[in-house]
Amino acid sequence: MKQVLYAILSLTVIGNCFGQTLVANPQDSQYEGGELQLMNSNSNYNKWSIDNYQGSLRFHHDGSVYFIMNPNGNTGIGTSNPNAKFEVV
Fold this sequence. Notes:
It is a single chain. This protein is α+β, with helices and mostly antiparallel strands. The protein has one helix spanning about 1-15, and strands at about 20-25, 30-40, 50-55, 55-60, 65-70, 75, 85-89. Helix content is about 15%, strand content about 40%. The chain has a seven-stranded mixed beta sheet, with no helix packed on it. Strand 5 and strand 6 form a beta hairpin.
């Protein structure tokens, strides 16, 4: 499990090493605890976001969640609501 998480984080960092990084204020302050946006100099192109939403760590792009880790330990790839410790859809 640690190796999978390390691989995902490494690919995210490597793939965006030439981009700009900024910390954004929460878009939904009731549920979101902050957001990190990864993008190139054109803010409308290839924007990935990492955020804390209702206590879940999410990686998302273009409105789709690709990786999520919930506070209960359930982790998912390709699903925004994993029902197991590790679920791939």
